[in-house]
What does this fold into?
Amino acid sequence: MLAGYDPRDPGSVDEPVPDYSAGLHDGIKGLRVGVPTNYFFDQLDEEVEAAVRKSYEQLEALGAELVDVALPMPEQLGAVEFAILLPEASDYHRQMLRDSAHLYNDDVRVMLEAGEFVPATTYIRAQRVRNLLQQAFRKVYDKVDVIVAPTIAATAVTAGTQSITWPDGSEEPLISAYTRFAVPGNVTGLPCLSVPCGFSSEGLPVGFQAIGRSFDEATVLRLGAAYESATDWHQRRPDI
It folds into this structure.
């Protein structure tokens, strides 16, 4: 974890850094845990969903209060993510991509090249919508202290797989299926922690993510510590 103010970083915020370990084992009795009613459970592997919903039962047994919450503006999340991420990544890699394009994997190079075609007006509008999303998410945390949701929509697949077929027969590109649930935290800048919470029938690990309010890493870590103290998923290893 990186924390603290860096005057050389324009994205750094001058906020005090607490001792994250101080209340790590204080438990989660009375903690309001948000259970998403949209977005995170709209399209995902059935075994992933089952493991995450089972983790809610464990958190409740530890004293947490489960509260249903709806993520605001879910239809804007993906568009904002890529309208900002692609051009910023392209700018960072611009010279290296021109000097050593052959060193990039094809999928990475294509994404970086695509970022150079995002208009400046689109990037600016995405930043404005991002600000609206951040404001909307702050209101969600009036009702809850932390949101718990699946980390990714599916377990690991065989190398070379390009897409995932969902139970309803629809297909989704692998990169989308594996990054979609990281978008809310990325776009809003909220602290997230992935915690092991089970295994699939094929012996592949499943995790949930705890998403906290801004600068409240301490609560996110406390929830993770409480869950791990009551389970042993983090001590198990998949058969390789």
